[in-house]
Design a protein that fits this description.
Blueprint lengths: L2 E5 L4 E6 L9 E2 L5 E6 L6 E6 L6 E2 L7 E6 L5 E6 L10 E6 L6 E2 L7 E6 L5 E6 L7 E6 L6 E2 L7 E6 L5 E6 L6 E6 L6 E2 L23
Antiparallel strand pairs: 1-2, 3-4, 4-5, 5-6, 7-8, 8-9, 9-10, 11-12, 12-13, 13-14, 15-16, 16-17, 17-18
Length: about 220
């Protein structure tokens, strides 16, 4: 499967790769110079990074399990990701972090059920993720960047996925099927004031925040 970039200035698609089968999130580094993603060119999903022009691909994980959902720290020095490397039978995922060059891979969560889709807070102090810790449904949890102080942000009978921080770190957008089908919700960063934004019979998921470009001051 080919991966294409987008030249926003000229609105032209730019082909970056023709050899990686993309299977997970593609994430820009905070400074916009690199991309992290998960791929399985060798039938084993791992985390890769390359430059924004597609050059210098680097494989960061090499274990026998599925590694996916990379998320850059705001400093660009670390990457959080999910991996099932410690449960090859049931393939339950845990949250890990590593240096941006793939060194010092460290497990942060130790749960019976899967922990998925980590994302760093804008200040770099917290990691948000989705987990089935109650054994019944997926809820959103928050922990310190070192794995301490895990706190549940949602507690309902639906599944809650794909959390995304607002740029200022005060709100979280996510998808949930608590009303019967997946809709987009937002809430405060502490889990309060949950608001449903979409009301559709079709699937609504994977929200992201739009940051308006700065406008030039009048001459």
């Amino acid at each position: 499967m080919n991966t294409a970039g987008l030249d926003l200035a000229n609105l032209n698609r730019v082909e970056l790769t023709n050899d990686f089968a993309i299977k997970g999130h593609v994430r820009w580094s905070p400074n916009g110079t690199r991309l992290a993603f998960s791929a399985d060119p060798n039938l084993n999903r791992d985390i890769y990074v390359f430059n924004a022009d597609g050059s210098n691909p680097l494989r960061l994980t090499t274990d026998l399990s599925a590694d996916s959902s990379p998320s850059w720290s705001p400093s660009g020095l670390m990457i959080a990701f999910q991996s099932s490397r410690d449960d090859l039978i049931n393939r339950t995922s845990e949250i890990y972090v590593m240096n941006a060059d793939g060194t010092n891979q460290t497990r942060l969560t130790f749960n019976t059920w899967s922990d998925n889709t980590p994302t760093w807070s804008p200040d770099g102090n917290k990691i948000l993720f989705s987990s089935k810790q109650n054994g019944e449904n997926y809820n959103l949890y928050l922990m310190d960047a070192n794995g301490a102080n895990i706190t549940a942000l949602t507690q309902n009978s639906g599944d809650n996925h794909n959390p995304e921080w607002s740029p200022d770190g005060t709100m979280i957008a996510f998808s949930s099927n608590r009303d019967g089908d997946y809709e987009i919700y937002v809430m405060n960063a502490n889990g309060t004031n949950v608001q449903q934004l979409t009301y559709n019979t079709d699937y609504d998921g994977e929200p992201t925040w739009w940051v308006s470009p700065p406008t030039s001051p009048p001459p």
